[in-house]
Amino acid sequence: MAIEFKATKVNNNMKPEETSRYYAKAVTKGTVTLNRIIEDMCAESTVSKADVVAVIAGLGKHLIKNLQEGYTVKIDSLGTFSTSVRSPTVNSLEEVRPKDVSFSKINYLPEVHMLESFRNVSFKKVETKEEAKISKPRGRKPIRRK
Q1: What is the pLDDT of residue 27?
Q2: Residue 15, pLDDT score
Q3: Are 5 and 124 in contact (CB under 8 A)?
Q4: What whole-number distance in Å separates Cα of residue 58 and Cα of residue 65?
């Protein structure tokens, strides 16, 4: 099992005369839905689908509730969730007011064991359209006779 990646071109817009450079970018194989995960979990245990759905729905509800109340939420074996806020930069402490603060995002920090599980992962390069043009000769396709 490998994580697929492609070579992605990046241009330096500040120095257009420089040659283009490339970096690796992960390629997704698609999206795994919660329903698929629930079905997999049920197949590996004696827990019913309804029970798993109820627990996950409850977890989501309480995760949101606790984040909205200003708590950081740590879920063992998964990670830690917290919130960030934003506000304009001002010149004094007094000018930082609640009316100027807004929600920014939910932060997620994976558990250490989750990060460590990627230490020995393998990678597989997939061909991009640009590489396909280079590696395959252009021209007419041969006519196949029966």
Answers
A1: 94
A2: 84
A3: yes
A4: 10
Name beta bridge partners: 123. 3
Q: What is the pLDDT of residue 137?
A: 55
pLDDT at 141: 58
Q: Which of 135, 131, 146 is nearest to 5 (CA)?
A: 131
- What is the C-alpha to C-alpha distance for residues 48 and 57, in angstroms, rounded to an integer? 14
Phi, psi for 53 (deg, rounded to 5): -60, -45
Query: Read out DSSP for 61-102?
Result: HHHHHHHHTT--EEETTTEEEEEEEE----SSGGG--GGG-E
Q: Which residues of the chain have pLDDT under 50?
A: none
pLDDT of residue 140: 56
Q: Cα 74–99–80 angle (5° rounding)? A: 10
pLDDT score, position 145: 58
Classify residue 37 as left (phi > 0), alpha (psi -120 to 50) or beta: alpha
The residue behind tokens 């839905």 is: 33
Contact partners, residue 32, CB within 8 Å, separation at least 6: none
The tokens describing 124, both together, are 């597989």
Kind plus residue range of the DSSP H or E element containing 113: helix 112-116
